[in-house]
C-alpha cells in the first residue's frame, strides 16, 4: 500500500541541494569502494592542529573488534565549533534559546559570546581540578549552560556524560558511578512544561550513593533556595566571574574520548556508549550539513533534549561545527498548549524543524486546528528521528506542518552510530512515507536472515547489520569492551548488529520494522510490530498504537495491541471490531489483532520511545519482572495498563 507512494524531491530542493541524485550515486559508490580516499577528503572540513595521514583502521572481526579513524590527527572540537567561526561570524547567532515560559525572554547567543562563556566554564572546570581524560557528569535542563558545559569539557579534554535532567537521583547515581565522574554540573532547578524540577536536590540525593564526586558546579537558574554544601558546591556564575575569558583549546588526538552517553534503555539496562573526537566531528558535521541541506544563515531547530544523542550530534556538535544557528528549547510540545511548537517556528522563523514521531503522533491526536493557526511559511525541511514513523503520521506532518511543500527527512540511527546512517538527502533522494530510504556515504547496510544468512537480493527482509566501520561509530562501552563486542559483534560475526529488523524493497529502500526482539512470529509468519502499528494509526480514530506478542496456544504468538484514541473518540466494543477488520484489510488476515486494550497512555522512555519490553510483560501477565524501569517517563502509565489488561 504505502510503498506505492513516492515523493520526488521538489524543484526547489533540487535547485539548492549540496548533492544531486547523480552525485549521490557516484559519491556513495566511491565512499564504499575507497573509504580512505573519500574520508581523507571529507576530513578537510575540520580544522586540524595536525592533519591525519592514517584514515581508516577498523575491523569488525570477532573477537578482536577495533575501531579507529584519523588516528594520527590532532584537533580540538570546541575550537572547531567556536573559534574558527569567530573571524567571519563572531556576531552571528550561534544558539537561540527559547524558554519554557513563552512570556519569558528568549536569548540570542552569538559565536563571540559562546566563545567567552565556554572559555570561562573551561577555566572554572580546570580550577575545580578537572584534567584531560577526567569524567564530568552534566545534569542540566535545556538551558544554554548545557551546551557551554559540553563544549567546555571538549575544550580541556574532559569526557562529558550528559544525563537527562528528568532522571531520578538513583538513575543519576548509577550513571555517575559507572564512569567515575569527579565533577557534576547541575542547576538549582529546571523548568519544563510549567513545572520545576529539583535538580540540585536530586544531585544531593544521588551523591549519597556516589562518593567519588568532589565538586558540584551549580547554575543559578530559577533562583530557588537550595542547599550549598561547604567546599563541595560552587555557584557557576560566581566561579565564572573570577576566571579569564580565554582558554586555549587542548590538542586532542583523534581517538581521545569526547563523551560517554547512556542509551535510552528501550531494551534493557542502558549502555555507556563511548565516542571519540576526530571521526565523530567529521561525521556529525557532514551528516548535519547534507541531511538537512543546511546553508549559511538558516535557522535550525531540533526539539530533542541534549540528554540524548540527537541533542549531542544535531543540536550542539554538528550545527555548531557548521557555523549554524541552532535552537535550544527548554519546554515541551504541549505547554502552555499544543500549539507551542508552531508558535516557536513562527517566532524564530525556523527553516529546518526536526522532531520525533512520538511528538508528531501526539500533535496529530490533538487535531489540526493548532497547526492551522500558524503561518509556518519559514519552514523548508522537516526531520524525524527516534522511532519508525508510521506512514499516516508522515503524511500528517507533510500535509499539515509542511503544507505539502517541505522535504521530509526520516533519519535512522542510534546512540552507537554517532550520526545518521540511513536517511534521504533532500534534493537527491525521493522519499516514501515510513521509509528511512537509503544509506549515507560510507555506510553499507546489509540484511541477514535471523540465522545469519546474507540476503543478497535487493528485495529482502530480516535483521539490519552494517558491513564496515564509518567515522562516527562508537568505539566501546565505557569500562566494558567485552559487552561492546558481545552486544554488537558476536551474534552475526564480522558485522555490526543494530538490533533492529528491516525490510529492503525493490528500490533498495530500507524500512525499519522495529526491534528484532519485537518481531512477531504468528503461525510461522514473521511480522514487524511497526507494520501493524502503522495500520492501526492509519485509522482516523487512532492516534497511537503499540503492538506486542503474547503466548497463544494455536498460533505460537498472538497479536496484542495497545491503542490510544484521538482526543474525543469513544472506546467501545464496536470500535474494537472495526479496528480488527481494518488491520485485516490493510495487511492481511495473518495480522488480525487478537486482543485490543485501550491505553490512555503508553510506557515511554524519557526520550519518547515506546518500551515494548514492558508492554510484552503486561500482555504476558508477568508483572513481577518488568526489568529496568528507571528510564520510564511516567511509571503511572504502567499501573493503569496492568489494571486494564485484557482477559483471555
Ligand atoms: P537501548 O539500546 O538501551 O535499548 P535505544 O535503542 O532506544 O536504547 P537509542 O540509541 O536512543 O536507544 O535509539 C536507537 C534506536 O531507535 C534504533 O535502534 C531504532 O530502533 C530506533 N530508531 C531511531 N531512529 C529511527 C528511525 N528514523 N526509524 C526507525 N527507528 C528508529
Ligand atoms: Mg539501542
Helix content: 25-40%
Order of neighbouring strands in the sheet with most strands: 10-9-6-4-5-12-13-21
Question: What is the CATH C level class of the domain at 518-644, in words?
Answer: Alpha Beta
Please tally the β strands and state the result.
28
Which CATH-level-2 architecture of the domain at 518-644? Answer: 2-Layer Sandwich
* CATH fold-level label of the domain at 518-644: GMP Synthetase, Chain A, domain 3
* Count of DSSP H/I helices: 21
pLDDT < 50 runs, ≥5 residues: none
What class do helices, strands and sheet pairing give?
alpha/beta
Bound molecules: adenosine-5'-triphosphate, magnesium ion
Silhouette: globular
Return Rg in Å. Answer: 24 Å
Mean pLDDT: 96
Beta-strand fraction estimate: 15-25%
The span between the termini is 32 Å
**The CATH homology group name of the domain at 518-644:** ANL, C-terminal domain
Which sheet architecture does the biggest sheet show? 8 strands, mixed
Say what oligomer this is.
Answer: single chain
Organism: Devosia limi DSM 17137
Domain AMP-dependent synthetase/ligase: 84-468
Binding site for ATP: 386-388, 410-415, 500, 515, 526
Family: Belongs to the ATP-dependent AMP-binding enzyme family.
